[in-house]
Amino acid sequence: MTRKSLPLQVDDLSHFSRALARQLGEASPPHLTLMNMLARAAGFQNLQHQRAVQAAAGRLAQAKTAAPADHRLIERTLTQFDASGRLLRWPSRRAVQTLALFGLWAVFPTDTLLSEAEVNRILLAEHDFKDPATLRRTMISCGLLTRQRDGRNYRRIEQEPPTEAKALISRLSARRKQRPEPTAAGPVSRPLKR
């Protein structure tokens, strides 16, 4: 018969240690020794190690909270797109360019090999200034697309977009839903070979 794990959570190790010492009575080791014993029983080297691990976990949890989005940058980038989510012009500011490229990155299929012609077709459908080569090359240099050395196949690089990019992608997705359905067939893609 397998034994079920019984979790134990202690909110205050010092209080728990004192309560245990009272139950052990005269046989109880000193308070600090008992706390070190409890920390080792929990899988730590000692009490100091447990405190250091918990402090690091707290710092990392705070670091995970996303920094507030730069709404001005999102607004500036959105002005580069029309009401249907198409990029109107190549932005002059580098930060706006990079953010706009994330807006284009979001329309590429995941885990799919694409030919250069298919990438160009997707980009031409998403911008008005007829320069897919610049967009394609810049997306590669920004780490949004990758291509094979021979230049035949391209693929979107999967990643967690920055906070501003997530907000932009969400707004552009809403705009793109307003578009009329295209009559011509879209890009033909091949599943990624592994």
What characteristics describe this protein?
8 helices, four-stranded antiparallel sheet, alpha+beta, single chain, 194 residues
Which bin fits the share of residues in helices? 40-55%
Binned strand content: 5-15%
* Principal-axis shape: elongated
Main β-sheet description: 4 strands, antiparallel
Assembly type of the chains comes to single chain
The side-by-side strand order for the widest beta sheet comes to 2-3-1-4
Structural class: alpha+beta
Describe the protein's topology.
Elements: H1 13-24, H2 31-41, H3 47-64, H4 71-78, H5 94-105, E1 112-115, H6 116-126, H7 132-141, E2 145-147, E3 153-156, H8 163-176, E4 190-191
Question: What does this protein look like?
Answer:
The longest helix has 18 residues, at 47-64. Helix 1 (13-24) packs across helix 2, helix 4 (71-78) packs parallel to helix 8 (163-176) and helix 5 crosses helix 8 (163-176). The protein is an alpha+beta fold. The protein is elongated. The chain has helices spanning 13-24, 31-41, 47-64, 71-78, 94-105, 116-126, 132-141, 163-176, and strands at residues 112-115, 145-147, 153-156, 190-191. The mean pLDDT is 89. The two termini are 43 Å apart. 49% of the residues lie in helices and 7% in strands. It has a four-stranded antiparallel β-sheet with strand order 2-3-1-4. The chain has eight helices and four strands; from the N terminus they run H-H-H-H-H-E-H-H-E-E-H-E.
